[in-house]
Amino acid sequence: MSFVINTNVSAMESLRHLNGCNLRYNRTIQQLASGRRIVTSADDPAGIAIAEKMKKDIKSTYQALGNTNIAISMLQVLDGAQNTLSEYLIRLKELSIQSATDTIHDRERGAIDVETQAILKDIDRLANGTEFNGTKLLNRLGGTMDIQIGINHDSMGRKTLNMRDFNTTVGAIGLSGMSNKTRDGAHLAINIVDDAIVKINSARAHVGGLMNALEMTKNKLTVTAENASDSKGRIQDADFARKTSNLARDGILKQTTISSLLNANTRSSLALKLIG
After folding, report:
1. How far apart are the C-alpha atoms of 196 and 86, rounded to whole Å?
2. pLDDT of residue 212 exceeding 90
3. Are 170 and 195 in contact (CB under 8 A)?
């Protein structure tokens, strides 16, 4: 067996192992500190590509969920206004029936019509004043409102509301010119109010259906985000039990490799004894 000093192969091998051990040790420390298995793209190029795409989808899904919650709040405002409108119409029906009987005279009908006209003004005031975040809800003659409830730009990702369906001004629901001043006017008003009630009930049913549909969408988005987050975590998050075990292993290997490197360097110094 030869004894050389210019090329210390044992020291070179020990140093190579030490460098590899240090790299693994430091990477494990970074992973434990961040809680992620993939800290840099070098850790898992394919994994980080998948995880980042899932991260985009998760954040987009939560934003769509936020949009859906806001839309539900808007529809709740709309439903509340329609509920008040229904109460107005029921009262108008009572007044019309009261005015239609011959047991009262035009003088009493005049008093009834004062309340009738006041309610009609309140209906218009309600329709023109109901808004959500600056958007009028009950007096639109046309136009649509798009609600982004998905993460893609397609018909599945949007729900479009036809705002004309929610127009509840006096003119829109057919109450223009209504009067309870006379018996004949009251007879006509009964049918007019009945038609208006049918329109409002239909609009409220439409709003209720939209709210239920958005609640279902909300639940679907929540489950989708949860499942995607779980999948992303399996790809990107660190397994602490495994990483702490690796850290302990690499710590021991690091110490033993240092000892081996010291021994390899010490062997080269034995050449001095041969000279002396």
Report:
1. 9
2. yes
3. no
